[in-house]
Structures are given as structure tokens and as C-alpha cells.
Amino acid sequence: MKEIEILVEVVESKQKALKILDQFEYKGIKKTLDIYFHDPLRKDLYPDVSGRLNASFRIRQKAGINSFAYKTDHFIDEKWSHSDEFETVINDFDITLQIIEKLGLKELIRIDNEKHTFVSSDYEIVLEDVKDLGLFIEVEKLIQVSDDKVMETKEEIRLFLKNLDLLLGEEQNAGKPELMLKRKG
Q1: Can you give the pTM of this predicted structure?
Q2: Domain spanning 2-184: which CATH class is it, in words?
Q3: CA–CA distance, 71 with 87 (Å, rounded to integer)
Q4: Which of 27, 42, 103, 117 is deepest in the core (most CB within 10 A)?
């Protein structure tokens, strides 16, 4: 599935952000744990020299549902445009974790966050309070678009964010795993 989204840091307080986002349909709050892995025998699951992940493999616990996913990122002019994400539900998080470790994959980074999810007719809007990283808003297009509409869709998301009347930082040209890896050095 093609994932077209924009991630920005929230400069406002969490309370103010939640109040502004209250205009959308609230889907609830979920604690999420993501564990990203790299393969010591392959370079594609490890950050490149600039610290960017071009592909990632993760296992997730979110509100009692476990899954794992493989993502490949696409870039236009050195900026992230979208990801192809392949995700499926798993029954047992701990057993899956043991299998991954037995296959020789090593933990790269953990992302522990609290997600407040809202939806509009076009977007999923998630306010994420990421442990040891900060407060972010991620807006993702709900419907699939063709490859030639990716940049147009990103511009629509930017306009949507601008119209929220929420004090935001710069658009992140990286995902939370890359941001956390950079923070940890």
C-alpha cells in the first residue's frame, strides 16, 4: 500500500493541539511500541551515510494488536515522497520477536509513543507524543493516489496543516526511527 503522509513537530502544548484537533472525528488514544531491526548481513535495513533509512522492518504492539511491516521509501530530489508498506497482523508478539532474533536480525531502535487519532473525510490525523523525541502531528491521505499525484497530494496535506491554526515546526524529511537515531547519535 502506498503511504503518503507528512510529519511535523508540534510547537504548541499537547492540550492546545488536542483542542484544535477536536474539530475532527476522534478515534481514540493508543499506546504504540515499534521495534525496528537491521540485518548485519544486508545494508538495506540500516541507515545510509546520511542517516536515512531507505527500507525498514519493524514489529509493532498497538492497542492489543500485533503486526510486522516492511517498508521501502521513495524520494524525489532527495526529499521523501512516500513509502510502499507491507504490513500484516501477527498472533504472538513475543514469539515473533524470538523468531526475528533467531534469524539474526538485530534491534536498531525502539519508538514508544502515545497516539491520539482523528479522521476527516480525506485524512488520518495523528497527534503523537513520542518518548524521548517530542510531540508530532502526522497527516496521511486516506485514499490511494496514482504515482503521478504523489507530490500534488503532499501539497494538499501541507495546505491542510497550514489551515489548522496550530504552531508547527518544519516538515520532517524523515520518519520517527531516523529522528530517534539522530537524537541518540
Answers
A1: 0.86
A2: mainly beta
A3: 8
A4: 117
Averages of pLDDT over runs of 10 residues in the chain (185 residues) are: 88 96 96 95 83 90 94 82 90 96 95 97 96 96 85 93 94 89 84
- 3 state SS of 159: helix
Q: What is the length of the chain?
A: 185
**Cell 498497538 belongs to residue:** 62
Domain boundaries, the chain: 2-184
**Burial grade of 123 (CB within 10 A; 0-12, 13-18, 19 or more):** buried
54-83 pLDDT per residue, tens: 899 999 999 889 999 999 988 878 777 778
Three-state secondary structure along 111-127?
Answer: EEEEEEEEECCCEEEEE
Place of cell 496521511: 140
**Residues facing 119 on adjacent strands:** 25, 124
Task: Write the pLDDT tens digit of every residue in 16-35.
Answer: 999 999 999 999 999 999 99
Closest CA to 138 of 2, 3, 8, 1: 8
First to last CA, the chain: 31
- The single residue listed with the C-alpha cell 531516523 is 178
How many other C-beta atoms lie within 10 A of the C-beta of residue 86? 12
